[in-house]
Amino acid sequence: MNSTATSHENAGMWWIALASLLLVCSLLVGVMIGPAGPAWWRVPLELINRLPFFSIHSGLTDTDWSIVWQIRAPRVVLAALVGSTLSIAGASYQGVFRNPLVDPYLLGVAAGAGLGATIVITVNRSGTSTWWIDPLPLAAFIGGLIAVLATYLVGTTGKGERSSTSLVLSGVAVTSLATAAQTFLLQRNSDVVRQVYSWILGRLSSATWGDVRLVIPYVVLSTIALLLHRRLLDVLRVGDDEAAALGVNVSRVRLVVVVAATLGTASVVAVSGLIGFVGIIVPHAVRLIVGTSYRVVLPVSLLFGAAFLILADIPGRVLDNPAETPIGVVTAFLGAPFFLLILRARKTAQ
Amino acid sequence: MTSLAFDQVSVAYSGRQAVAPFNDTVKPGEWLCIIGPNGAGKSSLLRSIAGVVPHTGRILVDGSPLSARSSRRRAQLIAYVPQSPVLPSGMTGAEYVLLGRNPFVTHFGSESVLDYSMVQDVIDRLDLHELATRDVDTLSGGERQRLVIARAIAQEAPILLLDEPTSALDIGHQQQALELVDKLRKEHGLTVVSAMHDLTLAGIYSDRLILMHAGHVVAQGVAEEVLRPETLGEFYGVSVRVHRESDGTIIVVPNRTSVF
């Protein structure tokens, strides 16, 4: 008999393996399905064909392959990056604030990014072709970071050094301020409302390998930093005071986790717009299935969130083609019933 | 065994003084009990030792100041059982006890085999097998308290701070919890500082009592010297009788003051 804590770790490994398998399947399904292009079953054959030492005739033309590789693959990979980042950031935020209702947009990332995007769309109506770099994701990224910085500065000045409540409240204030500024701008420039609105609803449709390259450094950095803190997030569950008495530098851990989660969130928001619901629903669904320990919740949320967004993106591009259903709408439509289902199943089991 | 000394230690919350400059030396292996009415500064003093609230002055462990140590090193020396501990729902008893090993795990590391076997050892010794696999949410007050003490023991700190360890327990579990602490104190040579409301229990278990009032120490000594009707009357504002049993136990009984 080894201790019960160890057996929990083993269970955690199984969940991680299972979620990895799910992610691999989702990646495959993601590149197999689309409104135009080759028959779905030819794609895996071609993928095997492209592996070294394999040669299978898949019947894919060059055009088919470029649809798979240049259009579907970057979109699927981007969906995976966005889904995993929003999920792990959401789970981490819920951990450091010890509040299950918190999502990665809590400290104003979404509103700041929205304001940044709105400013660029308003100023730059003629299009972005004259720029050497697409200013939209850049402005959204910077807007998101500025908003969170403002939240942090407002929330930690004053006496409540350790109070996370003041931080959350200042996030609410900064969000309102940025939203108000955005509304004002939109009202003044009603011709760009549609463009801004479509950005707000989230988009993966125009994903390129360039977008993937743009976000991947931030996503990797943020993910590694958050995964490294998974044990400490478990210690923080006993509250700031007891965690401090157990030797944790609470405010430093909170700062590092918030910075890492924000950096990841801001970068994915910059390329995908606002995809709501993922950051709150995925960690909760994962908790209901694998238990509450962050050692398991963080890696499983990461994998599961990636798979979830890949799958959620599929109906969006297949249904009412060529118009696209915004991914944010699909995540809410799929996520809410799915969440209720798990909640119900869990209740019956008890 | 480890000593704990206070040199002009005071605690203030936004300018309001909670503990006036406090000087004392707790001898290695001693059990010091701090008593006093609500708001006297007992918890604040304990929290300052645990590093949860800032303090001025110096707290010395075996002669060297705590402020010079990292929070991890401090936690290796001092285990703290708060008044109302948080037991996170969804955690098993064993996982909760494992939190006590945090001071020995590097920042980004994970627990070693040694940490796990230490936890198993504490579970064995405190006979917590039944609680180890259960969700802490399903435990009774007495079971929770045993688990919190187990976490503090797993911390292997030579100094144990207890803030009202028995306030949520019935008389049987009060005795059980304090007997457990006393047994562990003798086995491990722990130095114990506790804040308590039950004066009789405070007198029975501690080696020495300190009575605090409005942040100041107003009386100290063995039970017989501190637990006197006139002293308690003055600082608690109560009318009590104090009995001395043949074995030296001091019993404090409140008088009924209402007139019919």
List the helices and strands and how they pair.
The complex is a heterodimer of chains A (350) and B (260).
Chain A: H1 4-32, H2 42-50, H3 62-96, H4 109-123, H5 135-156, H6 164-188, H7 193-200, H8 209-228, H9 230-236, H10 240-245, H11 250-272, H12 278-290, H13 294-318, H14 327-349
Chain B: E1 4-13, E2 16-26, E3 31-35, H1 42-50, E4 56-61, E5 64-65, H2 71-77, E6 78-81, H3 93-98, H4 113-125, H5 129-132, H6 141-154, E7 159-163, H7 171-188, E8 191-195, H8 199-205, E9 208-213, E10 216-221, H9 223-226, H10 229-236, E11 240-244, E12 250-254
Parallel strand pairs in B: 3-8, 3-9, 6-7, 7-8
Antiparallel strand pairs in B: 1-2, 1-4, 4-5, 9-10, 11-12
Helix pairs in contact in B: 4-6, 6-7
Short structural summary:
The complex is a heterodimer of chains A (350) and B (260). Chain A is an all-alpha fold and 350 residues long.
Describe the protein in words.
The complex is a heterodimer of chains A (350) and B (260). Helices cover 74% and strands 0% of the residues of chain A. Chain A is mostly helical and 350 residues long. In chain A, helix 3 packs across helix 13 (294-318), helix 4 (109-123) runs antiparallel to helix 5 (135-156) and helix 4 runs parallel beside helix 6. The longest helix of chain A has 35 residues, at 62-96. The mean pLDDT of chain A is 85. Chain B is an alpha/beta fold. Chain B has ten helices and twelve strands. The radius of gyration of chain B is 19 Å and the shape is globular. Chain B starts with a strand and ends in a 6-residue tail after the last strand. Chains A and B meet through helix 1, helix 9 and helix 10 of A and helix 2, strand 6, helix 3 and helix 4 of B.
* Biggest β-sheet description of chain A: none
Counting DSSP E segments of at least 2 residues, the number of strands of chain A comes to 0
Structural class of chain B: alpha/beta
Please bin the fraction of helical residues of chain A: over 70%
Detail the poorly predicted runs of chain B: none
Number of strands of chain B: 12
